[in-house]
Amino acid sequence: MHGTTSGDVSSARPPGHPRGDQEPYASGSLTKPLTVVLALLLAVYAGILAAPTDPFTPDEFAHYDYLSVIAQESRVPAQLSTARSQTADIFACTPLSEGTFLVCGSQGQDPRMLPWLGENSATVNLPFFYAVDAVGSALLSSWMDTDLLTGARAMAILWTLLLCAFTALLARQLGASPLSAAIAAGVVGLSPVVLIGAAAVQTDTPSAALAVGAVVAWLGLRCRPIQLRLAISLPLGLAATTIRPTGLLAIVTILLLERYVARSSRNGTLVVIGLATVGTWVGLAAADAAIRGGPPSNGLLNTYVSQNWNQRSVDAVIEAWASIPMVLNWPFLSNPIRPASSVLGLASIVVTVGAIIMAWRSREPAARVIGRVSIAGLFVLPVLLIAVLLLMGQALFYQPRYLLLPVVLCVGVAASHLSAKTERLVTVGLGLSAAVVAFGVVALY
Question: Where is 436: in which H helix or E strand?
Fold first, then answer.
């Protein structure tokens, strides 16, 4: 693997033009290899979606309840409003890998812990994403002639594929060869944290997709007027932030790219633009809280179903970068291939650490900015999210899946530095990883 040298002319090349030190590997079109990778990922995700046994996914109950109110009742629920009994019935009675939840109905459970008596903690989130997802889910469920939950999970697959596509475009904009860029999409698409929610209603992947898309938009417009590139890239970053606060990383990245790569604005101007963008997010949150302020807390912030799912998946979430998702619960990760899944989990750690190191060593101006900001985000985001939880008065917790965005950005940067030899090696490894995951999906049936 190698990077550019200080004498490289890459800083002057137009966006998407391959680095001179990568010829002839940087030539060619991204369309074909990326289409192949996305098609294979789609097959994996569709297999998970259609499986008779649902995988565990953190907080899917709460997110789905939020969007289902918008889709089915044409209204936005109040913050911390009680979860609907219809949603609880769907999830409480869903067959899982270890049997059926006993909360189906009221069999043997304390009535005070029945799922429909708890508050929906997801309703404190801004409604924009849920409104878009509700429309998309309704359209997909109608087109697929299925229920809204399946449509919502199909919508999640589209978000996941969008994230993978943007990762490839990011790598390509930074000078990666078509194959390296497609590899980056595959690495992200098969990473444990992404697989956890690939076919489930959640907010991590959509937020990361829009954030990476914001950076890609800036890179694609870097030779165009500043007004145009900021008018397109910053709203995408803001949209990502309304889904998850981690989207702020995209806004910071864009402003630093503007300062140190485009060099078209003074520090003061960029600070004002940044404050205005962040202020818009804060203003939207404040307005939303004022308009949708819900009833006082009844003490059951997490529903019974949500508690059950989170408790039984928390170990897998914490170990997300070290294991295939849901290692304790997915049938295909039971005894026969547990050793194989451990090897794949170890490979995930190696790839992640390698991507971070390569991002840090990058010398190409844009890649250097993106890599350094992403690495800083790995340390800053936990502090930021905990601060947000404190301001919202919620219980303090942190899960590695919140670091999805900076890791994806590092993967995109690292892909632009793959030598031909490393490219072939990573391709073989990615193929073996895909085979293990595909075998596991087939075993679900």
Answer: helix 420-443
